[in-house]
């Protein structure tokens, strides 16, 4: 009897999974989905930058708080991780943040920790960029031309690399689809911006790092901000109003669950705009304000983030975090829900 019912269960599971997928509106990809896309197109500048508040496309980085609390130390907080081990690991992290060992995390201690974890992400980006630079520098001369990069990029899209190189040497026109051509034009703009004067369209390893990771260069950070404002600015005044910033992403919502996700998306962006980005609270975000907000090494912003993170879990309103509070709000800090926080805190700490 059980064997006859199994296909029905599998069919029902498939329907549920399809419904779940349709409930997600466009541009709400998870960190794991983004990581998969990055592996497929390693030499394409990533949309998601660890430790940076906005994605390249202007969407909020939903994993930001976990990235600046855990750094690269994310192992042990997966959905299938053993809860006791996860709680113990979280308390180990708590002890590292709690520098004066008073069993409380202050805003200054959290600020220092955020800066430390952000520096870890910076180093990780340097190492990734170095590997990608070697991949697109075939002659190993320490400089990559736009044409060399273009060949590698199109090859990653399925074009024949040898044929591409031959056509470019003979100045033949490359036939690519309209979407790919648009991406190439945007990438070339970024390439020009990363190319420090005198401009020669040749990028060194440091310049290539700025191309892939604009958070490493003040000039490229400005360029990234301009692109975000350009994409979100509806009236052309080169600044952002609240309605412009909270406008829903392109895409249709097919059911109530999808609508709920979009409602949360608007609510989160409204809070971020009013509490953190709009520094003078005049209802308008200038490029300068957005640039300060986006700068991952801005110590003032790190302190504001520290205070906000503490406020999320500070149930006793003492402006500090205690072990019980961190465990209770573990999903905010680690992405994992750890149950029995009150009963287990003394066992793990």
Quickly describe the structure.
With 349 residues, the protein is mainly α. Helices cover 61% and strands 2% of the residues. The longest helix has 30 residues.
Structural class by SSE content: mainly alpha
Total DSSP E strands: 4
Rounded to the nearest angstrom, the distance between the terminal CA atoms is 50 Å
Helix count from the secondary structure assignment: 17
Series of secondary-structure elements, N-terminal to C-terminal? HHHHHEHHHEHHEHHEHHHHH
- Strand order of the main beta sheet, please? 1-2
The percentage helix is 55-70%
Mean pLDDT: 83
Fill in the keyword field for this structure.
single chain; 349 residues; mainly alpha; two-stranded antiparallel sheet; 17 helices; globular; disordered N terminus; 45 kDa calcium-binding protein; EF-hand-dom_pair; signal; golgi apparatus; metal-binding
Please explain how this structure is put together.
- This protein is mainly α and 349 residues long.
- The chain has a two-stranded antiparallel ribbon with strand order 1-2. Strands 3-4 form a two-stranded antiparallel ribbon.
- Helix 3 crosses helix 5, helix 5 crosses helix 14 and helix 6 packs antiparallel against helix 7.
- The longest helix is centred in the middle third of the chain and has 30 residues.
- The protein is globular and about 70 Å long.
- The N terminus is likely disordered.
- This is 45 kDa calcium-binding protein.
- One of its GO terms (biological process) is calcium-ion regulated exocytosis.
- It is found in: Golgi apparatus lumen.
- Keywords: Calcium, Glycoprotein, Golgi apparatus, Metal-binding, Repeat, Signal.
């Amino acid at each position: 009897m059980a064997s006859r019912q199994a296909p029905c269960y599998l069919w029902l599971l498939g329907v549920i999974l399809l419904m779940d997928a349709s409930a997600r509106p466009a541009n709400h990809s998870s960190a794991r989905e983004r990581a998969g896309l990055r592996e497929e197109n390693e030499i394409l500048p990533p949309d998601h930058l660890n430790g940076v508040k906005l994605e390249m496309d202007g969407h909020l980085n939903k994993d930001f708080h976990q990235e600046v609390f855990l750094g690269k130390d994310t192992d042990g907080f997966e959905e299938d991780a053993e809860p006791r081990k996860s709680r113990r690991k979280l308390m180990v992290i708590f002890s590292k943040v709690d520098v004066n060992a008073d069993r409380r995390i202050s805003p200054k201690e959290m600020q220092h920790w955020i800066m430390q974890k952000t520096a870890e992400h910076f180093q990780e980006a340097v190492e990734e960029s170095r590997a990608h630079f070697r991949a697109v520098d075939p002659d190993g001369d320490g400089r990559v031309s736009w044409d060399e990069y273009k060949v590698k990029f199109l090859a990653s899209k399925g074009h024949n690399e040898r044929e591409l190189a031959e056509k470019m040497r003979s100045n033949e026109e490359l036939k690519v689809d309209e979407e790919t051509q648009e991406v190439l034009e945007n990438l070339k703009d970024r390439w020009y911006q990363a190319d420090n004067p005198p401009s020669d369209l040749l990028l060194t390893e440091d310049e290539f790092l700025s191309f892939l990771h604009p958070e490493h260069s003040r000039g490229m950070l400005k360029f990234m901000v301009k692109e975000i404002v350009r994409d979100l600015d509806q009236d052309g005044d080169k600044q952002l109003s609240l309605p412009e910033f909270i406008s829903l992403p392109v895409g249709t919502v097919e059911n109530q669950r999808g609508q709920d996700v979009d409602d949360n998306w608007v609510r989160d962006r409204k809070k971020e705009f009013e509490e953190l980005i709009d520094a003078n609270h005049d209802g308008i975000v200038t490029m300068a304000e957005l640039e300060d907000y986006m700068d991952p090494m801005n110590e003032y912003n790190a302190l504001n983030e520290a205070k906000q993170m503490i406020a999320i879990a500070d149930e006793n309103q003492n402006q500090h975090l205690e072990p019980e509070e961190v465990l209770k709000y573990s999903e905010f800090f680690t992405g994992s829900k750890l149950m029995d926080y009150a009963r287990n805190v003394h066992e793990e700490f």
